[in-house]
Amino acid sequence: MNRFFVLMFVIGLQLLHSQSISSLNDSIRKYTIKDPEKALDFGYRAISTSDFNKLSWDVYDTNYLIGQTLYYINFEKESFDYLFQALRVFESLPVEQRLFKKITKPPWILVTLGNSYLNYGDFERARNFYFEAIENFELYEEMHNEDKFFGLNTVEGNLAMISYTLGDFEESLQYYKKILTRRQLIDKPSDIIKSYTQFINLYLLQDNTEEALTYLDLSKSVFEKESLEPSFSSDSEIQLNYSEAISTYADYLKNKQRFSKSLAMFMQAKTLAKSFINEIPGLNVSIAECHIGLKNFTLAKSILENNIGSIFNRHSEQFIKGDSRIRNFQLLADTYQNLGEFDQLLSIKDSIIYYSKQSQIDPYKSLDNVENIILLSEKQAEINESEIRYNRAQLLFSGFALILILLVVILRINNHLQRERSTRLELERNRMEEELNAKKRELFSKTNFIIQRNEYLQNFRKSLGDDKELPATCVNRMKREISSLINSESAYSEFDKKFVEVFPDFYKKLNENYKLSKVDLRLIAYIKMNKSNNEIAQISGISLRTVQSQRYRLAKKLSLDKKQDLNAFIFSI
What is the Cα–Cα distance from 135 to 140, expressed in whole angstroms? Predict the structure, then answer.
């Protein structure tokens, strides 16, 4: 049994480790707002996978998502480290490996940088980053329209906040209307509620409660409709966004000291946000503030103490916004003072001082330091790029040296092979020349044999006429036999065969260009053999005059001018 549990544990670990970066990135997205601690856990698990060392879009995405999560929980410096690492990965990726092919810079990173300047009131620089982000979002391909619209909505929402802060209510309103139009086009209920919350906040800033309540009622309608769907979940974004819409109006009522109505709305918002751990501390503080406003100090004390004990002291405390923690202690101090519990009041004064100082001395909580972080990250990126270039140069040099060595080796091997080949070719050429010379000798020998034989036969035929003892009929018959033997085709066919072996393409070239008879070809062959007219006459068994006549007709067939020499022409073929 123990072995079984050990085996299952090992298999479980292997399955956990084998999760792809892509699926881990999906988990980061799922928990960034709901549970940042868990989101970061998935992010660091993605970093530990073997594939993380390979350059890919998933590696870019992991760095970006970790950076976004850290930024969300106010770890600005650590956030920028990951965001600029994501930017470096993006710039190193070939275009074909990028999810978005046309963008020049990842727009969400530009949004985050813009947010940093927005947080510290540098609206001009924030806008510059936002406008650059918009340009890149607009370059998204049509298949990524949902991502494009989400990005444009986020940026324009921030631009609307800047416009209102600078006193331009109408421009802010126009931004929010554009955002709502896009969200209605995609028809994502949670995002539509988010748009309604933006309108609620904007109209409340103008003390226009009538318009604000109109949009709160619209939010309620969307929420109630979606809550009836079978797929509805209590930890959905719809619940969180509707909770935020209610909290926005409740906060306005609290500031107007309408504590009873505000308290009821904050309690409703807390019920809706119960699955989102990071939202609860802030809502508890607001609820306690309402109780203090209603003079319910004992109840406020209980809520604030429980807030510290159950949430702020947990491991996930680091993911709670610092201002909520300080407000909690300050309200608790007010409660102790109103209840006359001065001993308790003194015990938390140190905590108030400690967390206030932490907030003040945070080296990353100033505009100058944000710029320094960005500058340092950019410089680090330049250093890393220089190192990459240096390593690339070293790699190229090593590759070039290796190629050079390989080329030298290949050239030497090739040279050796060429020498061997040349030697073989020389031997082959010598062998062929020897064979050709042997065939030439055989051809000349055959020719001389025919000449000698024909000369002997002609002399013998001539001598027969001088022999008076033989009958005339017998002499004539013998002369005919001798003439037949001289002109025998078998002797010439043997000659032709040997001639073709010595000059294989000779007849072919002639036949391609001229229409020649067998007698013409044989005459040309004898001339090619450098035989004189007399020798040709002896070989052929014809008269010298006949040979001369044949030469004349051949020159005509070859279309030679009178000045052209027949022998020279044949030798040139």
Answer: 10
